[in-house]
Amino acid sequence: MSVTWEELGWERLAAGVGRCRLPGWDCTAGLVVGEGTALLVDAGSSLAEGVRLRARAEELAGGRVTHLALTHPHFDHVFGAAVFAGAEVYGAVGLDAVFAFERAELRLDAVRNGLPVADADEAVDALVTPRHLVSGEWTLDLGGGRQALLANVGPGHTAHDLAVLVPGSPEVVFCGDLVEESGEPQAGPDAVPARWPDALDRLLALGGEDAVYVPGHGAAVDAAFVRRQRDGLAARFGVI
Questions:
Q1: Which of 43, 45, 216, 20 is nearest to 116 (CA)?
Q2: pLDDT digits (tens, 9 = 90+) for 11-32
């Protein structure tokens, strides 16, 4: 008997599409199941968490995770990426430079936010540059009529923000930390505040009014929530 999304602690959003909220930083990971394929959105905050995430995702998919999309370069979304050996890894253009030249900053941010030093060191040492860099939009054919659109919608939360649109009924948009529901959107030193509202406008154009929008942290939301957050960010950062 096949296991259900709920039995493994995942929330089913549409047919073959779901997400889980990881412990610690309440970070979202998404899963899109195709025919003999599986796309994971974000990889967790450590190699150990990545191992657990991969096991649960592959049990749901009935096979290997074949594709991995990283929404942005913060540790809680990317430090588990190295355990997905054999998967095709995607990120926004510029993510490769962050992984190559800013590892010390990634490690420091992780430790500052509570990741054990040994876990941070292990993950940073294992970071692998994404093979596929998205500058505009990139459509993945996952088989069985399933597609996923990767869209470089940033900058905003970081300089390298990638969203994932899964067509269907409803359409599902994985937003990364461009959208947060469980608290105020976090604008760290690598944020681009002046461009963030525009990035949310691109998200809304991508998904439309009836899509389910999946934040990087917190519960799934609707277009009205994203629009309110867009207006709040514009006011917060003085963007006209």
A1: 45
A2: 999 999 999 999 999 999 999 9
